[in-house]
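Hi P.,

Sorry for the delay on this. The queue was packed all week, but I finally got your sequence through. Input first:
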Amino acid sequence: MTLSSTQRQTLTWTALALAVALLLWLLAPVLTPFLVAAVLAYMLHPMVERLARRGLPRVLAVLFVEVLALLAAMSLLLLLVPVLVKEIPALKAQIPPLLDRLDATLSPWLAQFGIQVNLDLASLKAWVVQVMDDKGEDWLAAALNSARLGGSVMLSLIGNAVLVPVVLYYLLSDWSALVARAQSLIPPRMRAPVTGFMDECDAVLGQYLRGQVLVMVALAVYYAVALAVARFDLALPVGVFTGLAVFVPYVGFGLGLALAVLAGLLQFGTLAALGWVALIYGAGQVLESFVLTPRLVGERIGLSPLAVIFALMAFGQLFGFVGVLVALPASAVAVVAARRLRVAYLASEIYRG
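Then the structure:
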């Protein structure tokens, strides 16, 4: 059977796509820092271009933007410092009375079922205080021992932490040249439609990023104000951290929730604190999922609120955590592709008969 020219081209492109997919799958562990750096470069290169157009040398523009991004990431982590500084001594002071209350509540309850439990509270308290009083050398020794047991993981983390900024620097420096080279590989007859499609995707993804920043700022304000109204001493750092960390779905929210629960228990020592945290964070999830994300992100990228909710659930079901992370950017690209397919379909012989 003789294949037509179109069929041969289709098979060639399909084979190339499969080969690239297989190569990416095989090199996935090595590509991780490069993919992270590429995503960051895509987000940051407009700022570099803007500074370069204003006369700042490109090297200085790249260094300025990268240092600014690193400072922003470090600032987010440093929000945890006042939380830990206040909560660790409070935790040390609260553990003995908590153990007393646990024994007073648990022992009579278990006795109803014929289970006799005699906790050696004095030894337990002494052990906990000793652990909390350990010097930094003991913690460092434990960390080094852990690093020896999982040396490859530790080296991988350190390597990625060093490699990502280096790769990011080179990508930001050569971004325009890299894009031009990629465009030069597109066959001339396909260059105009492909370039137009990529430009439209770039515009939609830019809208997505701006919308996501607005969601993060709105949630940071909400959580900080709500926790302050509930009279949490650590309302500002915990609230701001939770709001900004929601950029990483589930993980950011879960870490903020854990910090709020711990802060509430240590400050108030009652179940009412858990009730306040559950109310504030439950309302925050409803606000994010059904109001802020659909309105500030979904409408900017051409998705209805219902489509945003469906995309998050569908990608999460198919790809887990990574799926939730890429659900809206991938949906934004899919919206652009769907628009072009609709135009092509309406102009085709199939539709027009």
